[in-house]
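R.M. (postdoc): so does anyone remember the format we settled on? I'll just put the structure tokens first.
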């Protein structure tokens, strides 16, 4: 009888120990997964806890960053953009800094470079292009097929009027004055070549003196040509 009671007591103790162990294990597992930083803080780091911490930090980094005016979002931060041009004010060069290079130079990054054609591109990075910005001439003429080199200007002068005309003089800034004495019939054109001395920017006024065939009156047509070009020599 005494042995039976003793056995029952031992069985109860064993059951209680099992229950306590299960409860303790459940608590450890719960803390392990819900508070991995607590586990690592106790000096028990492992691959799983590190992975959980990393994943949570990654999710935090993925949270959307919202920037309110006058700030804009750049990367993972907000920066001031007072003039609303989508460039951080800290990255913009002040007018004083830009002017410090002095025309015809511009500041790109932290250096000044030559921009003689005033197109916002360093001339050294803007090679191999010829660009006619604009050209015009008074009636009855029109200027077409313009070719510009360092020392030469060529163009077609079209007579859009109803009368044949004689070209007496062509004067263009930075070029030698020509007295071609050529006749251009109404609706026709003639090509003219002038010796010039251009830099990479052309801002030249044009003056053409002409006479209508059968008239002794000298007439004048004025115009201009604006162009950019590069030459390598």
């Amino acid at each position: 009888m005494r042995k039976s009671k003793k056995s029952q007591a031992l069985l109860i103790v064993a059951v209680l120990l099992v229950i306590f162990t299960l409860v303790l294990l459940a608590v450890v597992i719960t803390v392990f997964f819900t508070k991995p930083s607590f586990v690592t803080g106790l000096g028990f780091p492992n691959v799983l806890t590190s992975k959980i911490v990393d994943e949570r930090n990654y999710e935090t980094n993925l949270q959307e960053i919202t920037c309110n005016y006058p700030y804009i979002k750049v990367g993972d931060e907000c920066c001031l953009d007072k003039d609303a041009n989508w460039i951080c004010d800290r990255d913009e060069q002040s007018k004083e800094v830009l002017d410090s290079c002095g025309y015809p130079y511009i500041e790109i990054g932290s250096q000044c470079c030559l921009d003689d054609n005033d197109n916002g591109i360093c001339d050294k990075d803007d090679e191999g292009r010829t660009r006619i910005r604009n050209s015009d001439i008074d009636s009855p003429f029109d200027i077409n097929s313009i070719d510009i080199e360092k020392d030469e200007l060529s163009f077609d002068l079209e007579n859009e009027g109803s009368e044949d005309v004689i070209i007496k003089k062509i004067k263009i800034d930075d070029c030698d004055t020509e007295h071609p004495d050529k006749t251009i019939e109404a609706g026709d054109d003639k090509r003219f070549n002038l010796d010039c001395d251009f830099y990479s920017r052309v801002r030249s006024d044009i003056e053409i003196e002409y006479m209508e065939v059968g008239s002794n009156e000298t007439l004048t047509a004025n115009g201009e040509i604006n162009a950019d070009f590069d030459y390598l020599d």
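R.M.: ...and that's the designed sequence above, right after the tokens. Also worth knowing: The chain has a mean pLDDT of 78. The CA atoms of residues 200 and 229 lie 5 Å apart.
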